[in-house]
Amino acid sequence: MKRSGIFIFVLLSGMAYAEPAAISVQDIAKKMSIAKHSNGFEVRMNVFVTKANGAHPLPIKLAVIGQMATDKQRLLIRGISPKAIRGHFVAAENVGDVRAIKYQTSNSSSDLDPYSQLFDSGLVIWDMFSPWWGWREQVWQGTEQVNKHKCERIRSRINGLNSEVREVESCVDVHAQISLRTRFYDSQHVLLRTTSVQSFIHKGQGLLAAKKLTIVGADQSKTEIEIYAGDEEYQVTTETFAALERLSLNDQQDVR
Amino acid sequence: MSLMQFALNNLLRRPARTVLTVSAISLGIAAIVALTSIAWGFEASWQKANDARGTDLIVTRISSENTMPSPFRAEKIQAALSVLPHVQEVVGLLSELLSVSADGPPVFVFGWLHDSYLWNHLKLSQGRWPNDNKEPVVVIGALAAEMLNKKIGEHVEIEGKSFLVSGIFESNAVVENGAVIMTLAQAQQVTDKPGKVNVLNLKVDSSTNEADLRNIKQQVKHTLPGYIAITSGELVSKNAVVRISKAMSSATILISSLVGALVVFNTMLMSINERTREIGILLALGWQRITIMKLIFSEAVMLTMLGGMMGILGGVAIALGLEQIELMRGKIDALFSVPFFVLVLGLSVFLGICGGIYPAYKASRLLPSAALRYE
User: Fold this and answer.
1) Which fold has domain A25-255?
2) What confidence tier does A245 reach under pLDDT thresholds 50, 70, 90?
3) Min Cα separation A115/chain B (Å)
4) What whole-number distance in Å separates Cα of residue B263 and Cα of residue B259?
5) Which residues have C-beta within 8 Å of that of residue B43, sequence separation ≥ 6?
6) Which helix (DSSP H) or strand (DSSP E) does residue B269 occupy?
7) Across the interface, which of B98, B99, B192 has its CB nearest the CB of A63?
8) Where are the beta strands (DSSP E) in chain A?
9) Which of A42, A81, A233 shows the shortest C-beta gap to B160?
10) Interface of chain B against chain A, CB under 8 Å?
11) pLDDT tens digits, residue range B98-156?
């Protein structure tokens, strides 16, 4: 009786603290890294911002082109409207570190902090690369429900990174390969912002992509993003990331 | 006095209850009529738009279930289709649901190949067509012109690019009437989808029969993996929005029918409980049990018939009202038909019969002696 009691206790303890049986947390992180791989995609989004004081700036319309491989990930963000941002580009790449530039004509670019807010919205270019899935420390923290979807809460942490984000807590629907809610913390574990997916696009085979998402900043400013068009097989040309290529070329010349 | 007159008088004895019962039934029927006509109208409008263009077959991606299938590179597929027997023309079409004005609802923006047969069915009411593939102009449907408050010579802004409105057209399909059309090259440029289309429209020669069409479908299936050749009707019925709206209308029919039958059941049961003595007297006077049943059924059917007729009128009014809502204009076109209304009335009668079965049975089983003692 005593032995069977101990056995049940051990079993229950194991169930309470075990990682999800089917897949390890490292595998989830790997799966999430792979899920974003693409030879080329384009999404167009409406961005509605509500400032902390309740003010509503003009809605923004953006086009985002991306190319995501294991060794190199690149994004090009183009302002469509309003006029103030039309023809404004932000290009960024993640080659270990995320770096970004902004320009209106591709031969006159200037550096942009990848942690800064894009076009005065809650969008942060660093977040778009989700680099935390490549961090070494990934800890499973339990299962919960977000927007009626079961998800695995995973804490990703890095030390010594020269950035404001040191810890990211994601709640991942493993089957759909999407993080339903992502919280970003700094080195003092202060919450910087929370991203939540509100509605989805069904990609087939059970996979989901975000259609509507919200970013709530530490100051309670709110950015609502709605994807209104997309192309999963966007044809990336040599011109698409020309500004970034030029930057890399300059870097190489500087090294020499 | 006829049985019908007698039944009508019974209903008029309790006007408030009769009005409430008829109102409940008419609300259910109105919901059925409005939702079903919109679901059918949505389907018919897309099919009408495809058929009006004179397209015989549509080639698209197998997995496409959206209102407009996801875009693909047309070049190779177009070349492969052009050499198929009986195929006369293969024309690409690109479409997006985009906002054309800052405060207005999104509208369908179509990109059609300049000088292709797709334009032939449109009737230009003002202005002119685009001169060539490169001209940054649009033609807008009469409904879209009204919705966007645009006239010829004015500009519309699409995805940050300004286009001159060169013409206003009319089409039989409400989807096109509420749309903005530009040349395919312009649409590909403004949506950053160079060389891409949502669907390829196939026009076949006049000698093509059903077997030839089936043969083309088979050849597409075998030679172009991932793509499918279907008729416009098949494309529309695959559409996720059409399927959802049809499922919603079926659910409404089911729920409304159940509620309607229960309302009639409750009303008739209350009515015969109140009239137990009266029914006893009728039986004592020599009324046959079958006549009592007929009386109860007549009352139930009168209630549901009246509810059905009022519901049809209400449903038509709701559907027409919804068409005028800014967000819906140019996207839905409710479809009404006499056979549908007859069917709805038939459903109302059926509900009356279903709801009246037990009350009629109960009334007919009353014993005159017991009924006369009933207080």
Assistant:
1) outer membrane lipoprotein receptor (LolB), chain A (2.50.20)
2) confident
3) 27
4) 6
5) B236, B237, B239, B242, B245, B246
6) helix B240-274
7) B192
8) 38-50, 60-68, 73-81, 89-95, 97-103, 110-112, 137-146, 149-157, 167-173, 178-185, 191-204, 207-217, 222-231
9) A81
10) 63, 70-73, 96-99, 106, 157, 159-160, 191-196
11) 888 766 678 889 999 998 999 999 999 999 999 998 899 999 999 899 888 899 999 99
Which sign, positive or negative, has the C-alpha torsion B333, B339, B343, B349? positive
Nearest CA in chain A to B159: A80
Helix B276-284, helix B240-274: angle, nearest 10: 70
Interface test with B, best of A85, A88, A233 (most B CBs within 10 A): A233
Domain boundaries, chain A: 25-255
Residue-averaged pLDDT of chain B: 87
Residues with Cβ within 8 Å of A159's Cβ and at least 6 positions away in sequence, in order, are A166
Residues 60-89 of A with CB under 8 A from B: 61, 63, 65, 79-81, 86
Residue B183: half-sphere exposure toward Cβ, Cα within 13 Å = 18
Q: What is the ipTM of this complex?
A: 0.73
Q: Quickly tell me which residue has 């800014």 as its tokens.
A: B326
